[in-house]
Write a sequence for this structure.
C-alpha cells in the first residue's frame, strides 16, 4: 500500500535511505497519474528534486504534486 510523503521528515528519510518515490499530478480528468519516479536529491518547502532511473533530474512543486512510496 502506498505511503504519501507530506512532511519534510518524510522527504528526509526517503533521501537518506535512497528510496524510489513516485511523483503524481492531476490529469485533465481529475485523476492522479504518474509523471516521474526517482530518488529524492533535494527538497524544500516549495519543491522536490528527483533523480530518475536514467540519471536525469526534474523539479516538482510540492503544492500541486503528490509524492508516494510503496510501503514494504
Amino acid at each position: 500500500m502506498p505511503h504519501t510523503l507530506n512532511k519534510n521528515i518524510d522527504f528526509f528519510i526517503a533521501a537518506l535511505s535512497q528510496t524510489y518515490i513516485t511523483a503524481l499530478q492531476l490529469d485533465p480528468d481529475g485523476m492522479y497519474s504518474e509523471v516521474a519516479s526517482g530518488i529524492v536529491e533535494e527538497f524544500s518547502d516549495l519543491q522536490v528534486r528527483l533523480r530518475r532511473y536514467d540519471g536525469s533530474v526534474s523539479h516538482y512543486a510540492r503544492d500541486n504534486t503528490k509524492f508516494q512510496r510503496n510501503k514494504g
